[in-house]
């Protein structure tokens, strides 16, 4: 493990993923440790967007649905996601947002498991996941009971009343990883479906949805997959389940023959039935460029580097400012996602002070400082610099300045 800035530079020079950083615009003078919230801009995206807007939209107009295969984007882009999540190409599709995909798949799963009523999830799960499940509970008025339990008793709470367990694979604050195969196995034993949220997993860790016998999953396009702000999301449904699931947002794009314009909804065979309306073409194109940054990249190498970056951050933070923070993520890289978390009562102000010094992480209430590592562009020397500046802020108490104390709308 490196013990100086120079050693970090040497590690960067030997990094088998070093070539991938060239695929991004990483702003000059910025150490960006927030690729888990919004991935950096792929270098190929601006030209792609300009061509899409000026030629495909501006000149070819409606013809581009066929000529530029806009209509095929949900399936085509998904073929780049499938290998990253360990699924077959016809088990993944790109559509809507993560929140909307959660609604569609959770509703479909509940319907298929009736008369079971219980949807199990974890306290402290990502808010949108809980809010969408609460919305379903209200909508289905008695046909669903949302049961929230502590993470430590999740497995024990899986009994024969459970229709669906919906959990986030890597926790957004602590970075803890759930054992996917173990939860799937336990759920299947009691006859429940599992719906995984892969928002902090896809593009960051090795996933094997098929090998782990996963039922359903959703995930985010704008984090490690570099799809751009508000990028479309993806969803996965195991092939063995697809034709037995019916989702409630039964729009025309999920119809067996959308351009027959018939009055009766008839779901498409396979994964297409999980589409709702017209694809968001601009967002889809940017997402496609984001996914191209993974061309020729072995996800095992991404994972190995991610663990090394996290280990380095934690070790340096402990050496340089150990007494100041509590480490709120797993120390063992094998059970930690591509992020670390430190807590401090003045966490918000400390993060503001750090951002003012060019190190961008983020803050999550009540007291979490979160640093994400995107191995395609985060370097070892970035970790060194980030902790160096953090240590300076803590020793000089820079964060106490009033300008670091006021909160913006997005933290
Ligand atoms: C980022 C994230 C989302 C995002 O949902 P949107 O619908 O894109 O706002 C959902 N779930 C988790 C766990 C996330 O981390």
Q: What's the helical proportion of residues? A: 25-40%
The dominant shape is: globular
Q: Kindly provide the name of the CATH class of the largest domain.
A: Alpha Beta
pLDDT averaged over residues: 97
Strand percent estimate: 5-15%
Query: What molecules are bound to this protein?
Result: pyridoxal-5'-phosphate
Low-confidence region ranges: none
Largest sheet: 7 strands, mixed
Count of runs of 4 or more consecutive helical residues:
12
Succession of helices and strands: HEEEHHHEHEHEEHEEEHHHEEHEEEH
Total count of strands? 15
Within CATH, the superfamily of the largest domain carries the name Type I PLP-dependent aspartate aminotransferase-like (Major domain)
Structural summary, described in words:
The protein has twelve helices and 15 strands. By secondary structure, it is an alpha/beta fold. It has two domains: 5-41 and 298-404, Aspartate Aminotransferase, domain 1, CATH 3.90.1150.10; 69-292, Type I PLP-dependent aspartate aminotransferase-like (Major domain) (Aspartate Aminotransferase, domain 2), CATH 3.40.640. The strands form four sheets. A seven-stranded mixed sheet has the order 4-10-9-8-7-5-6, with helices on both faces. Helix 6 (127-140) links the parallel strand 5 (118-122) and strand 6 (145-149). Helix 2 runs antiparallel to helix 9 (281-292), helix 4 (73-85) runs parallel beside helix 9 (281-292) and helix 10 packs parallel to helix 12. The protein is globular and about 70 Å long. Bound molecules: pyridoxal-5'-phosphate (PLP).
């Amino acid at each position: 493990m490196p013990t100086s800035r120079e050693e970090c530079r040497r590690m960067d020079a030997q990094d088998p993923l070093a070539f991938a950083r060239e695929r991004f615009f990483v702003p000059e003078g910025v150490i960006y440790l927030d690729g888990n919230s919004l991935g950096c801009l792929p270098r190929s995206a601006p030209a792609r967007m300009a061509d899409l807007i000026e030629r495909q939209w501006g000149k070819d107009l409606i013809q581009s649905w066929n000529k530029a295969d806009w209509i095929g984007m949900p399936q085509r882009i998904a073929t780049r996601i499938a290998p990253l999540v360990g699924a077959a190409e016809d088990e993944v599709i790109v559509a809507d947002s993560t929140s909307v995909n959660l609604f569609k798949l959770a509703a479909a799963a509940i319907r298929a498991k009736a008369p079971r009523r219980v949807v199990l999830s974890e306290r402290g799960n990502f808010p949108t996941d809980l809010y969408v499940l609460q919305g379903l509970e209200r909508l289905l008025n008695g046909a669903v009971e949302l049961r929230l339990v502590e993470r430590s008793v999740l497995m024990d709470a899986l009994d024969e009343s459970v229709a669906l367990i919906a959990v986030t694979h890597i926790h957004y604050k602590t970075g803890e990883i759930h054992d996917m195969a173990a939860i799937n196995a336990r759920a299947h034993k009691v006859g429940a479906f599992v719906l995984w949220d892969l928002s902090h997993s896809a593009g960051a860790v090795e996933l094997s949805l098929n090998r782990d016998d996963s039922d359903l999953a959703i995930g985010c396009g704008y984090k490690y997959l570099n799809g751009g702000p508000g990028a479309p999301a993806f969803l996965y449904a195991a092939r063995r389940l697809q034709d037995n699931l019916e989702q409630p947002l039964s729009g025309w794009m999920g119809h067996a023959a959308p351009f027959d314009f018939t009055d009766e909804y008839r779901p498409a065979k396979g994964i297409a039935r999980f589409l709702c309306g017209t694809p968001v073409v601009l967002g889809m194109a940017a997402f496609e460029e984001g996914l191209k940054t993974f061309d020729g990249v072995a996800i095992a190498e991404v994972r190995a580097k991610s663990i090394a970056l996290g280990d380095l951050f934690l070790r340096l933070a402990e050496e340089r400012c150990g007494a100041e923070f509590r480490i709120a993520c797993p120390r063992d890289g094998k059970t930690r996602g591509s992020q670390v978390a430190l807590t401090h009562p003045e966490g918000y102000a400390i993060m503001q002070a750090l951002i003012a010094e060019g190190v961008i992480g983020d803050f999550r209430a009540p007291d979490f400082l979160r640093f994400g590592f995107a191995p395609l562009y985060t370097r070892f020397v970035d970790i060194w610099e980030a902790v160096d500046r953090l240590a300076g802020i803590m020793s000089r108490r820079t964060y106490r300045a009033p300008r670091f104390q006021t909160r913006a709308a997005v933290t």
